Amino acid sequence: MAHPDTQSGLAEMALKNIHDGVIITDANGIVEFINPAGVEMTGIGGVPQALGLDYGLVLKLESKEGSELPETENFVVQAMKTAQNLEKFQAVLIVGQSDKRIPVSISVLVIDGSNRIITFRDITKELEEEGEQAEFISTASHEMRTPVATIDGYISLSLNPQTATIDDRARGYLESAQKASKHLGKLFQDLLDVTKMDDSHIHAHLVPVDLTELVKTISADYAQRAADAGLNYTFGASDLPSFRNNHQLSQVVYGFVDPDFMREIMDNLIENAIKYTPSGGSIYVNVRGDGERGLINVTDTGIGISSDDLAHIFQKFYRADNSDTRTIGGTGLGLYLVKQRVEAMGGRVWAESAFGEGSTFYVSLPRISSDEYEKRMIAVRNEQIQEELRQQQANEAAAAAAATAPTIDASAQPMPVDPSATAPAPSMPIDPSATAPPSPVPADPAVAASPPPVPVDPSAAAPPSPMPVDPSATAPPSPVPQPDPNINLNQQNGVQQ
Ligand code: ADP
After folding, report:
1. Residue pLDDT, tens place only, 212-225
2. Is residue 19 within 8 Å of 122, Cβ to Cβ?
3. Does residue 449 have a pLDDT over 90?
4. Higher pLDDT, 304 or 3
5. What is the pLDDT of residue 133?
6. CA nearest to 283, candidates 342, 243, 327, 240
7. What's the predicted TM-score (pTM) here?
8. Which atom of ligand 1 is nearest to the CA of 318?
9. Which of the chain's termini has less CB crowding within 10 Å, N or C?
């Protein structure tokens, strides 16, 4: 084992030579140390210039869009203030007094409540690579959605007794084909969502909300679906083996979140809970306040997740592969989307599970006090009133301008009856295929009866091979491949802590 002096010497050498910027501050955020990479990236000029300054004057950040980063969205400020660790927050570093900007990923580590270690990494290259990959996926999935919709449409036509006559065997094959094409369509849609989410221009629009009420409303939409699947659904109580003795009711918790993101997060988590819980099981959704954070849990008594899988489920395309999941469709993208959205709001998501017993997914988000909520709501309302006033003034100004403009005397000349003036926009397409692109099913049965361009190959309706006995052979559980290390560019492995 190395001598302590040698160890600290080695540590110093490492800090001096790594490419990541490192700043160490005291509990008040005053810089006590900065490494050479930190000096260069921040453009502060030198170590002495940085020491003794507030970290905010050294590490100057703006949003990814190049605008000022409000304090509520600057998660470094939040982490420093509340002495909470922060992982991989992406922002843009302003280099000194120059115009230069560097996209960075920043982490804050709180040491014993006395020091804070801020590390920041240049992610220019990573973003470029991600951008190229996202563009490819986005284009490819966009292009592929159209033929899939066409296939889906023709299958629907074949299954519709008004437009086709088929025997029961063909019906069975086509129903399997329809299931698979729907799955493919969902996969392409998820891929498009992922590329949208990976787009650095997408960011959370945070507004003050009653988190408990929001989660309750969203999850209530699933009560019927849960009942249809033979599941008990409860909002407001947590009841998983690991905290069975800690039966808690929900509290009023206020948050500063993006409601659209919240809906997508809850949709994915509750849909999974329903999907992976056999009939007769239970689902619990709850919201609690946990110090500075709001804590949501979605708990089920379903098939559970093995500890090996648990470490990977938030990765893009990851699906646990076992006899239970093989028969349940999925794309392995839902939890990845959840993680992206939660982190975009400064939150964390993680899961606990016992294989065969059930799972709990936790989402922890920054919480605001009821006073803060009221204040921000007043600010939001004031902003709305200002906006309405601006709109009203603009309308009045436009009306005044119109009143002073020369007018045509309507009494002197009868109003021309111009059909184009009252008719809907002339460019409105009459072709139903133009207004309803996703489904190629023609509205006109005559069109439907005409030979479809898709070749009707008799061998397709009656495949030469006999019907395989193994249902997994006719309906492969998922066309989604095993996780491809080439695809998982920026993924953190494992469960989020
Ligand atoms: P999928 O479309 O496959 O459901 P997700 O990203 O939503 O994709 O989930 C990834 C994997 O995590 C799933 O394939 C499943 O194995 C596992 N999983 C997610 N939620 C649950 C749950 N509530 N119970 C058991 N397993 C789950």
Report:
1. 999 999 999 999 99
2. yes
3. no
4. 304
5. 80
6. 240
7. 0.55
8. 10
9. N
Instruction: Pick the atom of ligand 1 nearest to 320's CA.
Output: 16
Helix (H) or strand (E) holding 24: strand 21-25
Cβ of 335 below 6 Å from ligand 1: yes
273 CA from centroid of ligand 1 (Å): 8
pLDDT at 17 over 50: yes
Does 305 contact ligand 1 (Cβ within 6 A)? Answer: yes
Strands (E), 268-408: 282-290, 293-300, 348-354, 358-368
pLDDT at 405: 65
Ligand 1 mean position, distance from CA 313 (Å): 7
Range name among 30-39, 58-67, 116-125 with the lowest pLDDT average: 58-67
3-class DSSP state of 344: helix
Give, rounded to a whole angstrom, the gap between the first and last alpha carbons of the chain: 31
Q: How far is the centre of ligand 1, averaged over its atoms, from the C-alpha of 300 (Å)?
A: 12
Q: Where are the beta strands (DSSP E) in 238-292?
A: 254-257, 282-290
Residue 420 in this model has a pLDDT that exceeds 50: no
What local confidence, expressed as pLDDT, does residue 462 receive? 33
Q: Which residues does 477 contact at the CB level (< 8 Å), separation at least 6?
A: 325, 326, 327, 328, 329
Q: Is 330 in the pocket of ligand 1 (CB under 6 A)?
A: yes
- Up-side HSE of residue 409: CA atoms within 13 Å toward CB? 3
Ligand 1 site, residue 340, Cβ cutoff 6 A:
no
C-alpha to C-alpha distance for 52 and 255, rounded to whole angstroms:
34
Q: How many A from CA of 314 to the centre of ligand 1?
A: 9
Q: What is the DSSP letter of 72?
A: G
Using alpha carbons, list the distances in angstroms from residue 126 to 46, 200, 296, 308, 463: 27, 12, 32, 28, 48
